[in-house]
Write a structure and sequence with these properties.
The chain is mainly alpha-helical and about 120 residues long. It has seven helices and no strands.
C-alpha cells in the first residue's frame, strides 16, 4: 500500500505546480517506481516529476511507456498532456500540438488541458 500512497502524493505535488514540492515528488515517485517498476501509473508520475525537474530525456521516455501501458483513457490523456507540456517547454511546438490533440481526443474533459495554454 505504501508505494501507492507515495505515488499519489508525488502526483499531487507535481499537479499543484509548486516548485518547492518537487523535491518531495522526486523522492516519493522514485521510491514508488523502485517498489513497483512495471506499473504504468508509477512510470507516468515519475516521468512527470523528471520532466518538471528539467530531466526531459528520462521523463519523456517514462511518459511514453506510461502512455502505452495505461489502459484508461483518462490516464492516457494525462500522459499525453505531460508529453505535450514537455515538448512545449523544449520548444518542439509541432510535437506539443500532436500530444495535445491526442490528450483532447482521449479525454476532452482532462483537468490538465487548460494548463497547457497558459504554460
Amino acid at each position: 500500500m505504501m508505494p501507492i500512497v507515495l505515488n499519489n502524493i508525488a502526483f499531487v505535488d507535481v499537479i499543484l505546480d509548486r516548485p518547492e514540492l518537487l523535491p518531495e515528488a522526486d523522492d516519493y515517485s522514485r521510491q514508488a517506481l523502485e517498489s513497483m517498476p512495471t506499473l504504468a501509473p508509477f512510470k507516468g508520475t515519475r516521468g512527470m516529476v523528471l520532466a518538471g525537474l528539467g530531466q526531459y530525456d528520462e521523463g519523456v521516455a517514462l511518459l511514453k511507456q506510461a502512455l502505452k501501458g495505461n489502459t484508461e483513457n483518462e490516464s492516457k490523456a494525462i500522459n499525453a498532456f505531460c508529453l505535450a507540456l514537455a515538448a512545449k517547454q523544449r520548444g518542439f511546438e509541432s510535437e506539443s500540438e500532436c500530444y495535445n490533440s491526442l490528450a483532447r481526443k482521449l479525454d476532452p474533459n482532462c483537468f490538465l488541458l487548460t494548463r497547457l495554454a497558459t504554460s
